[in-house]
Amino acid sequence: MTHTKMKEKNTDKESIKEEEKIQEEHTEGKESETAADTMSEEAAEQDAKSSDMADEASEWKDKYLRLVAEFDNYRKRTLREKMDLIASGGEDVIKSLLAVMDDIDRALDAMTKSDDIEAIRQGIMLIHQKLLDTLHAKGVEEISAIGQELDTDLHEAVAKFPVTEEEKKGKVIDVVQKGYKLKDKVVRFAKVVVGE
Question: Is 0.90 surpassed by the pTM of this model?
Fold first, then answer.
């Protein structure tokens, strides 16, 4: 081989190396462009995700605030309805008792004009029965006590009295003040005397 051929071979090798180098740089450039494109796409995706998450958080916050306001309105409305119901329930009872009050007024007027004690007594008994009927219609019942065992859920013992009969011991022998229930709820305990 001659010196020129060797030079050409070396030049060919160098030019091949240079081409490879250029190709590598070109490939690296494309890879860096691809990497940059990928990174910008990822950043765009992250921005889109964070924007979506912020929108969703704002939406949930809005729903939460509306729900809290709605619940507060519901609570106020039900409280107002309960108060109205209590007021109107009392009104109903008062209206029914006004008829009894009218009868008492007539009885008082009749007592001043009449000396017939028996007629006045019958009138008072009729008024008493009317009052009891009105209370029964509203669900009020008298608590029975005399002759029954002392029941602390219904009776309040105010005194103990010694008794000679064995069957009266621990039982109610007298009622000092009547007790009443309103639909199975004790409104006033019966004040009783218990035998011992």
Answer: no
